[in-house]
Structures are given as C-alpha cells and as structure tokens.
Amino acid sequence: MDAEDFAAIESAVREFVRKEVVPREAEIDERDEIPADLREKAAGLGLFGWALPAEYGGLGLTMAEDVRLAIQLGYTTPAFRSLFGTNNGIAGQAIVGYGSQAQRERWLPALASGEAVASFALTEAEAGSDPSGLTSKAVPESGGYVLTGTKRFITNAPIADVFVVFARTDPASTGREGISALLVPAGLPGVTVGPHDPKMGQAGAWTAEVFLDEVRVPADALIGAEGDGFRIAMASLARGRLHIAAVCVGMAERALAEAVEHARTTRQGGRVIGDFQLVQALLAESHAELYAGRSMVLRAAEEYDAGTDRRLGPSSAKLFCTEMLGRVADRAVQVHGGMGYMRGVAVERIYRDARLFRIYEGTSEIQKLVIARTLLHPR
Amino acid sequence: MEVLVCVKRVPAAGARVPLTGDGRDIDTRHLGFTIGPHEECAVEEAVRLVAAHGGRVTVLAVGPAECAEQVRYALAMGADRGVLVDAGRSDPDPEATAGAITQAVRTLTGGEEPFDLLLFGDCSADAGHHQVGIRVATGLGLPIVSGVKALEVAGDGLRMRREAGDGVEVYRVPLPAAAAVREGLNLPRYPSLPGRLRARKAELRTVAVEPEPGGLRTVRLRQPADDRAAVVVLGHGAAAAPAVVDVLDELGVV
Fold first, then answer.
1. Are residues A84 and A123 in the same domain?
2. pLDDT tens-digit profile of A42-90?
3. Electron transfer flavoprotein alpha/beta-subunit N-terminal domain location, by residue (chain B) (predicted)?
4. What is the DSSP letter of B208?
C-alpha cells in the first residue's frame, strides 16, 4: 500500500475512533459491552480484518502500518480494539501464517468481514505466559482428534465462532514439544464457554473459560503440522506483543491529552494548575516516556517487517510500553487530583484498563526472560 | 437498475457558519467539505437498490475539480462510477445547476443504457433551495416525488412514501423516475477501508456542459442572533437549593 493510501486509512480510523467510539466510552464501561450498532459500524468500516491479507477481504497491512492503526485504536477504550483484536491478531494470524488453503478460504473472508469472530485458546490455569506447561490433550483417534481440556481468560470466547486451540497431540510429550494447534468451531458438541469474567478494568472486552469435553474434530482441523503448536503460538504472540505495545502508546497519548487539558483548564487557588511546576513535571515526564515508547514501537515494527528482529524488538517494546502506560496513567490521575479517582472520568478508566497490559500476551517478567535469553543465547 | 445520484460539495460547518466579509457567501477557508445528509441517504439507498436488484450506481457532482472528494466518498460507500460536471462557474445557482445536470444526463445516456432512477437529496445542506431535483426531472420529462422517506421496488416501478402533515402520502411511480429523498430514509454506512482505497484509485469521468444562466443572486447572508448558552451561578452551597428548585420547576422536572 502506498503512503497516501495508508494515510487515508489511518485518518479514517482516527476519525471513527474519535467521533464514534470516544463519546460512548462511559456507556461501554458501565454496561460492560460494546453496543451492537457500534460493532456493526466497525465491521462495515473493515476493522475486523485490517491485518488479514487483501485477497481474503482484509487490507494486508505491514507491521509498520498495523502499529500505526493500533496507536489510533489505543486512544479509546481497549474493549473496542479487543472486539476485533483476535481476528486481526493472534487467532487470525495463526490461520494466515500456518493454516491450509482450505482453512484460509473457509475462515478468513468471514473473519475479515466481521461475520465471524476467532478466538485464541492457549492459556490454561497452569500455563499462562509460558505455554509449555499446557495439559489440554488432542488424542488422535479414527482419522481425527478428541480434545479435552480447560482454557482460561480466553478473549472473545463468549462471541467466538471458532477457536484456535492449543493442545498436546503427543500425550507422552512435555514442555514445548508435542503441542499442536487445531481449529475448533464453537458449535461442536463438547465445547462449552463459561460466563464472561468480571474484571478490574477493560469492561466490554469479554474473556471466559472454554471447556473442551471430548470434542471430536477431523484431521483437517490441524493448523500446520503435528507438533508445530508451540512455534505457531510464539510467532502469533510476537506480532501480538508489538501490536499491544502500540495500543499502549495510543492509550498513553489519550491519558496525557486528558491530563494536559485538565491542567490547562482547572483552577486551584486562583491559578490554572498547569502553572504549578510540579504539575508541569508530571506532564513532561509522561511526554518524554511516551515519545520514547512511540519511537520504539515504530522502529521495532520496521525491523519486524524487514525480518531482522522478531524477538528482541517486540518483547522490549511490549515490556517498555506497557510499563510506561502504567506510569503515564498514574500521573494522569495525579494531575486530575480527586477528580481522577471518580467514575466517569476518562483517566480513572484508563488507570484500571492499563493494568492488564502488563500481564496478558506475556507478562513483563516473561518479556524480560525472552530478552535476556535472546541476548545470552543468540541464534 | 441504473441509478444516478446527484451530490453537492458543501462546507462541513459546525454550529456557527462563518461568513465572508461581504456577507454573500460562507467563508470556507477553515472548513472541511462533505455531502449533505439527505444526499448521503440517497447514495446509501442507491447502493442498496443495486445490491438487491442488480445494475450500477453512478454518482455525479457539479462544480470545481475539488468535488472529486465528495464523488469519491460516494464511491467508497459502494457507488460504481463517478462523474464530475464542469459547468464553468464556481457556484452555479439551482437553475444553472439543474441545467448542467440535465445536459450531463443527456450526454451520459447518449448511446448507453438510460438511467432508471435519478436520486437527489431533498435539498442541499448549504443553500437549501429544494429546486434542483424538481428542475432536472422536469427538464427530462420524468415524474418526481420529493420529501421521500421510504422507497421500494414494486412491480415495474417504485413505491415511495413521504410524510405530509399528520399523514403519509404513498406514490406509485413508473420507471424511469426521479426522487428527492430526506435524511432518515436509511442509516448511511461508514465507507469501508477497502472501499476508500478503491475509491481513491477510481477514474472519474468529466463531462463539460454549456454554462446556463441562473435566476438567483445572493444579496446578503446574515447570522442569526447569537443564542449561545451561558453559565449562570445560582448560588453557593445550600443557599443555591431554592434557585435550583425554581429552575427544575420551570423545566417541569419536579
């Protein structure tokens, strides 16, 4: 896509976020759901499939373009991005990168149009950021597999049409070996999705447990080859980590914009609080960190596209930007004073919403391990 | 079904419309441009009709080359072809605009399939003359219904509905026909991202027409009296309560 075309796309997404979503943030937070009409508009715009290949109805964006859109989407409630985040991200990319032609043709057009939602079922109670401990099983049987296991915190599970499920096809295996990825339609007998989890923040972004009770899938449900699961999961997550870092940059931009506006207009003791140097310090620290985070994401995305680094950059950006957002959100609340602690004020929501980013798609601690291992044992 | 939709490039003004120094025009130096809400519904309706019954949607705008922005927006919504009509004047009045469109329609349909339906917005979002659709239909000898709030294919023609006082008027119109539609006819879609990309690259046809004289001359535009909301402090602490009750009472809330 040429630069002018992409600029038009970026501008359209920016306009949509600010005109259609921002005014409804409080409603989404309060009702813990994305209104149906907003979902419909997002699907109409093409947000369910921007990162999917153009031949399947997406836009086929590069990582450098993907992160710029993610920054725009990050400006509003993360629940909105989450609605189509799994289609474009971890679940959709697993099908794009490793699915068979038949799997791509069956699912990608429906995912791109928003008719279907795909969900990435990796995490388990005892296998979070490190999936090598997962225990779900896919036992080969009569030309297919029988799946059993329980998945936890699965984003979009309550509205999913299909799951990318990670399970052990080799029952004797341990660690990262013997794990495979399978496409499991949500309507299959034995698939049960629990109620959506009540959470501290990110209201409207639904996660739930997924129970797999002797779910029979055909052999062609396999994504890639048997035993490719860990590699598929890691590849999908690397892209996802960079995307999440970009979302954090967008959210930090919003938190800072709210803080600046508050500092410029709120008076204490007869002066606008932006005149106080300690308030100015809070704004300046946030801006400097935000600038660093944005630069990091854009650089890491370029390197991802060039294929020169798909580990250090994404993990470093995810680590820095999620932690940076936490600090920027905290300062934004501080600038707001008591108002920043009140429900209905944007920075109060952002403060709660921000916390999850340091945990999901690989905790900060896991990112540090990935970075350190790559430094110590370069391939 | 071959459908032609006529759209106008209008300033996207906020609550207060800035005027030029001589008071004869809108000061557009700091404004973006758009198509009016009635016309956006006309494009949406045309795209839906063609999706359901086949055919093509052609979108046409009269005016300077910048009108391409509005034509491309309609293409992004799903229209198939875009036409710019160069009438040789920057701001033709409704009579001149209608003359230009009438000529352009004759040019476009010369040797091609005639349009089955011409759709207009009921009135433009800036001037609001309510004239162009009716003048074009008259010029081309087509039946037209204005103020249309619902439109559907019925047999070989169309059934159109419009509000009239306390009632509703329903018209059956044979094709070819014209309609001037109102906002509320449908909920226009957000142009999709792939649609916007297609529209950016679409080739627009330019049709030159002979300028026709218009009959209207703008003498002066005037801003309505400034009625911006003002903040009134009713009191402080508990002392404000009686005044608040009075206001609530006045509003009929209590």
1. no
2. 998 999 988 899 899 888 889 999 999 999 999 999 999 999 999 998 8
3. 23-212
4. E
Reduced to 3 states (helix: H, G, I; strand: E, B; else coil), residue B162 is strand
Q: Which residues of B touch A16 (CB under 8 A)?
A: 190
Residue of higher predicted confidence among B1 and B16: B1
List all residues 6 or more positions away from A261 whose beta carbon is below 8 Å from its beta carbon: none
Q: Are B200 and A8 a contacting pair at CB < 8 A?
A: yes
Domain span at residue A83 reads 3-113
| Candidates B190, B198, B201, B231, partner chain A, best to mutate (most A CBs within 10 A) | B190
Q: Which of B190, B194, B200 has the CB atom closest to A59's CB atom?
A: B194
Bridge pairing between strands A144-155 and A207-218 = antiparallel
For residues A27 and A144, membership in a common domain is answered with no
| CB–CB contact A46 B193 (8 Å) | yes
pLDDT tens across B21-67, in order? 888 888 888 888 999 999 999 999 999 999 999 999 999 999 999 99
The whole model's pTM is what? 0.84
Nearest to A5 among B189, B191, B197 (CB): B197
Alpha carbon of A208: minimum distance to chain B alpha carbons (Å): 31
| Residue of chain A whose alpha carbon sits nearest to that of B197 | A5
Give the integer Cα–Cα distance in Å for A60 and A5. Answer: 13
Which domain CATH number covers B171? 3.40.50.620
Q: Which residue of A has its CA nearest to B200?
A: A5
A59–B197: do the CB atoms touch at under 8 Å?
yes
Q: How many folded domains does chain A comprise?
A: 3
Which tens digit of pLDDT belongs to each residue from A201-244?
999 999 999 999 999 999 999 999 999 999 999 888 888 999 99
Is the domain of A209 the same as that of A239?
no
Which residue in chain A is spatially nearest to B76 when comparing CA positions?
A45
Query: Is the link from the previous residue into B213 a cis peptide, with omega within 30 of 0?
Result: no
Number of structural domains (chain B) is 1
pLDDT over 90 at A174, yes or no: no
- Cβ neighbours of A71 (radius 10 Å): 25
CA angle B59, B63, B68 (to 5 degrees): 50
* A74, A95, A113 - which closes a domain: A113
Containing domain of residue B174, as a range?
2-229
In a domain? residue B185: yes
Contacts of B46 by beta carbon, 8 Å cutoff, 6+ apart: B3, B5, B57, B79, B117, B119
- What is the rounded distance in angstroms from the CA atom of residue A206 to the CA atom of residue A153? 9
ipTM of the complex model: 0.79
- Mean per-residue pLDDT over chain A, rounded: 95
Angstroms from B217 CA to nearest CA on chain A: 37
B247 found inside a domain = no
Residue A358 has pLDDT above 80, yes or no: yes
B-chain residues within 8 Å CB-CB of A5? 197, 200
Min distance A136 CA to chain B CA atoms (Å): 39
Question: Which amino acid makes up residue B11?
Answer: P
Same domain, A175 and A253: no
Which of chain B's residues have a Cβ under 8 Å away from the Cβ of A1?
Answer: 197
Give me the catalytic one of A55, A261, A361, A365.
Answer: A361
